[in-house]
Structure formats: C-alpha cells, structure tokens
Amino acid sequence: MKTMTCKQLGGACDHRFHANSFEEIAEQSKKHGMEMFQKGDQAHVNAMNEMRELMKTPDAMKDWFENKRKEFNALPDDK
Ligand SMILES: [Zn+2]
Asked: pLDDT band at residue 33, thresholds of 50, 70 and 90?
C-alpha cells in the first residue's frame, strides 16, 4: 500500500488515501474531490476548476496523469 494526500493528487487538503495501484488512488481522490465539491468546500471547488481547465487540453491532462503515476510509483510502500 502507498499513501498520497489530496493535495498531492491535485486536491486541496491533507486527507490521505491508501491504495495498491495508481488507478485505485486516483479513483479515491476523485470520489473525495466530488464529495467536497458537493459540500461546497471552496478550496476543493477551486481545485476542481483548475482540473477542468487542464482537461480542456487532453495532452496536458495526460502529462499530469503520467507525472502523478510516476510520483505514486516512486513512493515507498507503507509499513
Ligand atoms: Zn481534499
């Protein structure tokens, strides 16, 4: 298992996610982001808007995703 925070995954808080694969952690982060967005949490609304901007450029989004995947893979496993 590896750990990444909401902030590390393009979010806005220090909430920690634990997963065995990048796909899994990306999914958790997305779910958490949506929940906070629905609660109207301003920091997460801003983060979500930035992400939407990024999605307008598919290549930029792909690069971002790949960089985060590398970051995840480089992390040490949780003890
Ligand atoms: Zn968060």
From this structure: very high
Angle at 10 between CA 6 and CA 16, to 5 degrees: 10
Residues near ion ligand 1 (CB < 5 Å) are 6, 11, 13, 15
Tell me if the pTM is above 0.85: yes
- 50-55 LR contacts (CB < 8 Å, sep 24+): 50/10, 51/10
Q: Ligand 1: distance of its center to the CA of 59 in Å?
A: 25
How far is ligand 1, taken at its centre, from the CA of residue 63, in Å? 22
Q: Average model confidence (pLDDT) for the chain? A: 96
Give the distance (Å) from ligand 1 centre to CA of residue 56.
Answer: 22
